[in-house]
Here is the input.
Amino acid sequence: MLGRTLREVSEALKQGLVTPTELCQRCLSLIKKTKILNAYITVSEEVALKQAEESEKRYKKGHSLGDLDGIPVAVKDNFSTAGIETTCASNMLKGYVPPYNATVVQKLLDQGALLMGKTNLDEFAMGSGSTDGIFGPVKNPWSYSKQYREKRKQKSHGESEDSHWLITGGSSGGSAAAVSAFTCFAALGSDTGGSTRNPAAHCGVVGLKPSYGLVSRHGLIPLVNSMDVPGILTRCVDDAAIVLGILAGHDPKDSTTIQDPVKPFTLPSLTDMSKLCIGIPKEYLTPELSSEVQSLWSKAANLFESEGAKVIEVSLPHTSYSIVCYHVLCTSEVASNMARFDGLEYGHRCDTDVSTEAMYAATRREGFNDVKL
Amino acid sequence: MATPVLRWCCPGRRWVFAGIGGVSRHGRGVPTGSTSSGKRGQSSVAQQPLITAQKPRKGEREWAAVVGLEIHAQIASNSKLFSGSQVDFAAPPNSLVSFFDASLPGTLPVLNRRCVEAAVMTGLALDCHINRRSLFDRKHYFYADLPAGYQITQQRLPIAVNGSLVYSVCVGKRRSQMVTKTAGVKQIQLEQDSGKSLHDSLRSQTLIDLNRAGVGLLEVVLEPDMSCGEEAAAAIRELQLILQALGTSQANMAEGQLRVDANISVHNPGEPLGVRTEVKNLNSARFLAKAIDYEIQRQINELENGGKILNETRSFDYKLGCTVPMRDKEGKQDYRFMPEPNLPPLLLYDSESLPTGTDPQQVINIDQLREQLPELPRVTREKLVQQYGMLPEHSFALLNEVGLLEFFQNVIKETRAEPKKVTSWVLNTFLGFLKQQNLAVSESPVTPSALAELLDLLDRKAISSSAAKQVFQELWRSKGKTPAQIVAEKKLELMQDAEALEQLCRSTLEAHPQVVTDVKKGNPRAINKLIGLVRRATLGRADPTVIKEVLERQLSL
Here is the structure.
């Protein structure tokens, strides 16, 4: 059941072939079994089981809330969840329990989804490996795949299995690993400069970064306000489309969301490729690109072309400036967004009480980590 | 030893300068009073602290002062600038704090429409150009009452620019003439207020109340077009009246709804401007002029003694009556201004540019706001002068007291008496009684109807003006009685019987032949004695002027 698509599971739930509680318990036991991955910071077992109970009641009455009703999901630990600790994998917010839900979290809950827990990440989503959080690194489930084990056995002898594992990429590594390990059907990540797409690629799942302004950032603890978006991680593209349909739309609490109304949509089934035009940005072919990635890229392009799609070269002329802009924006906005962490209203506060300045300095030194660029 | 000439930059204001030997050139003795607050009176000139010069001065120098103002006015709105929490100045600490105000991570600002309207209305009233597109920025600094570590303001492109504030100052020996002056309005911007810190030195702690954090502020920047404390105070007063008339701010300094910072420098006329200091914490209407004048004087003294003015921030110490450097502002602050990424540019429209089919709730039409602007104080005053023929300074006085204009207009409505009489009674007698007992107009025991009735009695010559004053006093003291009742009780009616008066006069003349002779001899004061006698005989119920007429006629003078 856990390997099915959202639509299939939803149908199964409606037909009573499986109950939300069964789904929930299976996912919870799998989370326990895959603890070594360190994908979850908080497992909200009680909450999830309660939600499953409510969902079950709805299904019995025939009043399901939609495609996500009774479906286990996970949320990256930089989204505010009311009553559930939200740490951003940092000492600064250890023990911080938000009093409100992020808009995207609320939308999932309003659809009846079951919240399995909060997933691990790079501290404050700053990183691309999911290795820099205070709860330790997230391990890629593929580290335990037969292929990888074989490879390692050949290369090293006698070394413990545990010391060799693959990273998930980041910063939404925990969400990617959670989805990849079948512990949930969908997970929320965040994407500023690839933090959803990167771990999705590493973990072999679908990672969607919606266009800025399409999905509300209210409740997403920000890194770079100008670029952050909530990201969606699922095991198939259709699932991502379903989740996007639920999450997208104007939020009065987020002034940067677009005002135009958004209607949920179904992806058309692509049988006629001839109407499809694929652009390959020529500026992306850089000398630094690894040959493995380049060949995969060509393989995908060729696949489309052989099926009848038009594959053309396009130019994105500002590509070379993007990384520079990113760094300027990133460093300024991060410094700005981190200014609020002073220990006064919430979060970690040091023991020093000599003066306000001393308290700020000590709190921030203790709460923050080094940024490894 | 030449004493520096101080130019009178302000009509009626003088820069007292301590000369060696103690007497300045302008004939005013240098006060040797102490600087203790006990001696503080209304006249700040007489109470200035003594500064004796140590070195001989270099020669005749004139001084001119340049004063610019930054005013922060709290916007009168139901909720804060970027969040939905309420605005209320008397609520228990930390009871009006939303998640955004507390800077909980993940919360985002949402712009308050009413605050934008308030900014546009104020800009229109001050003849500003309203920027159709304005931007929000973050101004960073660490302080306990600034939860997010930054304030959202408008540094690059504020909502309104290039306006002017027209105000008046009293000139002349008796300060009875009004002269119009203008101060340029550099810009008006929207920004957040900070929370409040309460320093508890006993327990070595600071308590933070975030009720005020996030309340909308209008920052009005006035160009350095003012030249002394009095002008600055007059400009502030006019701005207060404008904001109150618009309803965009209650602008009450005592409640912290209007806060003023001054930028002050001095220079010799014709030479470049001097180094300026910023004086903060000018939160009292009474001490505003005093503080600015003190700083001007301090700078003059410093420069005259060969010293230099530091570009620093100072604060006004109310107890000592002087400005002191603010110790925690060492070094220049780098605010690291940055565009606020969570707020798109603010776009305003007018009737021409308004796109068709837009939801009126989602857009602001400047032309519509302009049409709905209430009457400005300047216009109200002009109307009063034209309609009632009163002096300009009277129109100022009527607008200067809360509720006084309404009181005046209500009396006018109900009385037949001349407007000039009403003006005089309201501004002199009525206001005098209020001030004596420190009451607001709303607390007055005398209603407009009562005063109107009293003025009618006077107008009909049913009572004399001295009797009227007695009636007014009684009205003030005892509630519920009407003027007519009081007149009857105290038997204050003027004699209406002309024949009886003639009779009384004749009998008085007959009874005092000696005084009659004195009058006929040409003694001017003798007739007053006769008038007095007749008045006593009438028990004060005859008008002295009428008595005089009758007596003079009877004496065939």
